[in-house]
Amino acid sequence: MTDVETSPSNQTRRTPRGLDRLMYFSDATVAIAITLLILPLVDVANQISTHPAREVLESHAATLAGFAITFAVIGRFWLIHHRVFELVDGYTYALVRVNLFWLCCIVFLPFAANLLSNSPGDEPLIYGIYIGTILVTNASMGLMEWMILRGPHLLHPDCEGQLGLFQSVLTTGLLLVALLLAVLVPVVNMYALFLIFAGRPIGILRNRRLSRKRP
Questions:
Q1: Which of 52, 83, 122, 196 is the most buried (most CB within 10 A)?
Q2: Is residue 39 part of a domain?
Q3: pTM of the complete model
Q4: Is residue 197 in some structural domain?
Q5: 195 lies in a domain?
Q6: Using one digit for the tens of pLDDT, what is the confidence trace for 47-71?
């Protein structure tokens, strides 16, 4: 028999096998999504047989940039997901459903990147789809963090105080501002994403202020 601990009110499942399956499925889905990013570049590579390499690379600079940026974005999301679930000792079906939604956003990112790289010009809608997808992905990750903190017996007892919501909420807010800028001020376009780099120094300043207030 499988050792299962159930909380009737929140339907908390604490089987190590179930949590492992959730992580394996999530890791596999992210791996597939990040691999799909290379497919447009395979088509680009095929053109080198009939065109000079420099000409091909210059004409597909947007595709190459989209690959690099989206690879970094998905990689960063996976690192956050991995760090958070390293602290988890259980899960609920609600958490599983939000995790599935997060994975849906991850899988959609290569499509959004393809739209961006093939866009003929400054199209606010395309910028909105790409940045909006990143925004929703980050927000769903933040929701999972909130559920882990609020849920009974989800956070490992030895990991108390290692998970917080400030950075996630801050990044979501910065992404929302970036989305509005990209859509309402098209000349800003993808440069609006540089706003998220302000998140780390803001977090460091906040932590310093909190440390000074502590006796």
A1: 196
A2: yes
A3: 0.84
A4: no
A5: no
A6: 776 777 777 777 777 788 888 889 9
Distance CA 102, CA 26 (A): 9
Instruction: Strand 6-7: give its sheet, edge to edge.
Output: 6-7, 12-13, 91-92
Q: Which amino acid is at 46?
A: N
Query: Is 68 contained in some domain?
Result: yes
Q: In angstroms, rounded to a whole number, what is the distance separating the alpha carbons of residues 212 and 3?
A: 46
Q: How far is it, in rounded angstroms, from Cα 41 to Cα 36?
A: 10
Domain that holds residue 131: 6-163
Helix (H, G, I), strand (E, B) or coil at 188: coil
Distance CA 95, CA 34 (A): 23
How many whole angstroms separate alpha carbon 41 and alpha carbon 179? 27
Say if residues 203 and 170 touch (Cβ distance below 8 Å): yes
For 117-156, what is each residue's pLDDT tens digit? Answer: 887 777 889 999 999 999 999 999 999 999 998 877 888 8
- Compute the chain's Rg from CA coordinates: 20
User: How many domains, in total, are found in the chain?
Assistant: 1
pLDDT tens digits, one per residue of 172-192: 999 999 999 999 988 888 888
What is the distance between the alpha carbons of residues 194 and 38, in angstroms, rounded to a whole number?
Answer: 24
